[in-house]
């Protein structure tokens, strides 16, 4: 749903996010090319090519690796549509074999304004890569995205899958032949998505093309270039839109485990050693060379939007766990022997933290749970829909009227993973704290595959209900036989300060006497009760009381369900 909120262009009839409308309808017009579509990057309206392509690769990897799990959850249609919204744009952005339109919009002028995408008044300049302006990192990542997407679509639309593969091969050839960093060619991207190099993207694209085609040319490419391009020499502790080495190393570990008699075994084992380094570092078993963690147990990579690195690492560990399990293999870390289940359990711990099992009991996935950020650093979410506020919200007026207002956002941007807490698990739910409250494509993309796999293994995470029960005895007496009875009063309190509770359903066990103030549930389930018709809603901080008569210990009351 977050990806639907980020759509640029002419929206489709299946759009579920109703506060969004058509936007960016003249993208590419000044350059004489159709660049409608694609995704806005984060809380802004720039279409940055590198993180968009990486996010598409991660969506597609999830759809390929966890196809069964996503299909079982009836989410494959939505996943493929999210991928196709990007790949259709990439196809249009690649009109010739050696030309790739890499960016629409300028970060500096875009960030100067706070306005809805539908009101956009900032320049929509478009920037391209070609022979004279190379960008091996961005072209390589786009090739990887198209190759991975071709695999995702292959069981459902073989002709579209084949088309994606044609573009992927051409882009890889372009990236490899005309080498250079994209942000040297598109210098206004340096402030926002600076590249650390292009070697990892060339290896990454080759691995995905090998997986999509089975052509040994691409496997030989990563073998021959492993040392020179850093694939077999760089041990890394981070995987992101900029750094792909860990992904390359884990995918090639799978190639090795699938065929241990490969003529390239010795080089593939070097890749595998670096994949193990990444996993050991995440699980704190790497001889002191580990990823930092917060006191609450969250992996901590960077101050700015840390959760995008967490979601990527958790996805990689989940995929690596599946590969190890299929090969009946494990990992020998400097400090411990790790089983596949150890990797999956750790990935689950990171997902659980994101969903609310953390020191602040806050879900960092917007719309999930009862306590999640409401002041998201996102232009569209912070301003009422154009269908409600029809007058244009100007560039500066948006800051004055909407960015600075203390109230929460009028639109819930479901599925947005915010930047997340700081190194001490602290979080400031404030639009101006963009390091913590801005969501990104890169952060959300790995979650589809990650959550689908975890759901299939562990089921739905338990959410602690924001309800407390306060018991008191208001009267006591004895019958003629000396049996003591007690009149119990129970106050139900909604402990949430933000959300109302509806349709609260309670299980009351060990009740031996009469009860007043609750109704038996309509489904007739034994010992289950609900609030009476006129009291269905408990407002934030609200209370409701009921009484029961009991001889002996008090009854046990638990929450069955609520909304």
From TrEMBL:
**Gene3D superfamilies annotated for this entry?**
1.50.10.10
Q: Which UniProt keywords apply?
A: Carbohydrate metabolism, Cellulose degradation, Glycoprotein, Glycosidase, Hydrolase, Polysaccharide degradation, Secreted, Signal
An example of a Gene Ontology cellular component annotation for this protein is: extracellular region
**Carbohydrate binding domain mapped to chain residues:** 467-551
PROSITE patterns xrefs? GH9_2 (PS00592)
Q: Which Pfam families match?
A: CBM49, Glyco_hydro_9
**A single BP term in Gene Ontology:** cellulose catabolic process
Query: Where is it located?
Result: Secreted
Q: Which domain of life is it from?
A: Eukaryota
Catalyses which reaction? Endohydrolysis of (1->4)-beta-D-glucosidic linkages in cellulose, lichenin and cereal beta-D-glucans
Question: Active-site residues?
Answer: 377
Return the PANTHER family for the record. ENDO-1,4-BETA-GLUCANASE (PTHR22298)
Q: Which family does it belong to?
A: Belongs to the glycosyl hydrolase 9 (cellulase E) family.
Q: What is this protein called?
A: Endoglucanase
């Amino acid at each position: 749903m977050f990806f639907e909120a980020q759509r640029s262009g002419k929206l489709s009839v299946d759009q579920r996010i109703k506060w969004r409308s058509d936007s960016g309808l003249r993208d590419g017009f000044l350059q004489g090319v159709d660049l409608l579509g694609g995704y806005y990057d984060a809380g802004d309206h720039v279409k940055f090519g590198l993180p968009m392509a990486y996010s598409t690769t991660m969506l597609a990897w999830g759809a390929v690796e966890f196809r069964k799990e996503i299909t079982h959850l009836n989410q494959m249609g939505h996943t493929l549509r999210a991928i196709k919204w990007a790949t259709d744009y990439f196809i249009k952005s690649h009109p010739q074999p050696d030309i790739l339109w890499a960016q629409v919009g300028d970060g500096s002028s875009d960030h100067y304004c706070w306005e809805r995408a539908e009101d956009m008044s900032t320049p929509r300049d478009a920037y391209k890569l070609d022979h004279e302006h190379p960008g091996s990192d961005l072209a390589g990542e786009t090739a990887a995205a198209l190759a991975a997407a071709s695999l995702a679509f292959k069981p459902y639309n073989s002709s579209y899958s084949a088309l994606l593969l044609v573009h992927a091969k051409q882009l890889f050839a372009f990236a490899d032949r005309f080498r250079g960093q994209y942000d040297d060619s598109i210098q206004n991207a340096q402030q926002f998505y600076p590249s650390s190099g292009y070697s990892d993207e060339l290896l990454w694209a080759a691995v995905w093309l090998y997986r999509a085609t089975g052509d040994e040319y691409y496997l030989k490419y990563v073998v021959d270039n492993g040392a020179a391009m850093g694939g077999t020499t760089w041990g890394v502790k981070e995987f992101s839109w900029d750094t792909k080495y860990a992904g390359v190393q884990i995918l090639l570990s799978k190639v090795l485990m699938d065929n241990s008699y490969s003529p390239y075994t010795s080089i593939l084992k070097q890749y595998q050693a670096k994949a193990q380094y990444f996993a050991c570092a995440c699980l704190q078993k790497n001889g002191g060379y580990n990823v930092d963690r917060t006191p609450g147990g969250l992996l901590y990579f960077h101050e700015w939007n840390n959760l995008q690195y967490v979601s990527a690492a958790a996805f990689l560990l989940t995929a690596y766990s599946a590969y190890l399990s299929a090969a009946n293999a494990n990992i020998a870390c400097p400090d411990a022997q790790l089983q596949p289940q150890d990797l999956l359990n750790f990935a689950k711990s990171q997902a659980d933290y994101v969903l609310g099992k953390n020191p602040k009991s806050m879900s960092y996935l917007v719309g999930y749970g009862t306590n999640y950020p409401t002041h998201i650093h996102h232009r569209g979410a912070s301003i009422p829909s154009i269908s409600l506020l029809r007058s244009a919200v100007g560039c500066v007026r948006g800051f004055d009227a909407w960015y600075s207002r203390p109230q929460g956002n009028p639109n819930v941007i479901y599925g947005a993973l915010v930047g997340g807490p700081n190194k001490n698990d602290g979080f400031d739910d404030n639009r101006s704290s963009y390091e913590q409250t801005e969501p990104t494509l890169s952060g959300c993309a790995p979650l589809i595959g990650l959550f689908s796999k975890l759901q299939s293994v562990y089921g739905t995470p338990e959410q602690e209900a924001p309800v407390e029960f306060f018991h008191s005895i208001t009267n006591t007496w004895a019958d003629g036989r000396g049996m003591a009875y007690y009149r119990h009063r129970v106050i139900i309190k909604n402990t949430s300060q933000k959300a109302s509770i509806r349709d609260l359903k309670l299980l009351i066990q060990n009740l031996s006497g009469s009860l007043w103030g609750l109704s038996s549930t309509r489904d007739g389930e034994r010992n289950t009760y609900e609030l009476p018709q006129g009291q269905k809603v408990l407002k934030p901080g609200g209370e409701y009381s009921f009484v029961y008569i009991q001889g002996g210990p008090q009854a046990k009351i638990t929450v069955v369900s609520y909304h």
